[in-house]
Design goal:
- The protein is mainly α and about 250 residues long.
- Among the domains are: about 1-110, no CATH class; about 165-195, no CATH class.
- Helices cover about 50% and strands about 5% of the residues.
- It has ten helices and two strands, in the order αααααααββααα.
- The protein has helices at about 1-10, 20-40, 45-60, 95-105, 105-110, 120-135, 145-160, 200-215, 215-230, 245; strands at about 175-180, 190.
- The protein has a two-stranded antiparallel ribbon.
- Helix 6 packs across helix 7.
- The relative contact order is 0.09.
Length: about 250
Amino acid sequence: MPACNLLLSGAIHFSGCMATQDLKLWRPAIINHLYWTAASTPTGDPDEMQAKWQSMINHVQDIHEHSSPAFTSCAHPPLEGEARNKEWLEPGSPAATKLESVAARKALVKDIRQLSPQHQTFSLEAYHSLILHFAPKHTGFSFLGMYSRLLLAALHFNSNGNRDVARTSEGEVRYAVRYPRFRKGGWVVHPIKEKPSYGYATNLMVSLVEEYCKSPQALQESSAVLSSAASPPLTSSVQKVAKDEAL
């Protein structure tokens, strides 16, 4: 998905000409449509995803019926009043022609047909960010310290990955408007999730006390075995040279 996004964003280069200025207004909606194409096709049918993607070329020209049997008409209701916030592109205009030449590129369409409706990288990126919270790069840790912090990060992520969205006292979903750097001033809307829980930490401490009460020696032996599995530091593999010889 990110590769297609970059290809689309890079292909529609916004210069000062009228055609590209018209396309600039449609750029966020087109990128949203790219994600919707995959998310709205749970079966992953490549023909359906291609048809949905290419329907965008008609949609921006105020054409909402399509020739492909895989997707015959736009899924949105009639767009009137406040639902309309952009000017339609004139059919056959330079802007419409330019957009079609980009959206119909063989390399892009090939990627569209292989989009995953389920597996995205944002959760993995969130997990990597969480690791930095438990094990910041500016601090050095022992093998046991680093190993323990990675386990804690995984436990925290798994315990809080499916939190419900937060709601107001009236039961309405709460949202936040954010301004990611990659949007360059643009905004995105995110639902606010409930605060994370730390019940896993309580369970860990209870289990630790129970194991210690059963056999302190067994717990110490387990810790010693884990410490013995530590890899030697990377610097130990470097063959040092005398300073005189290096000079």
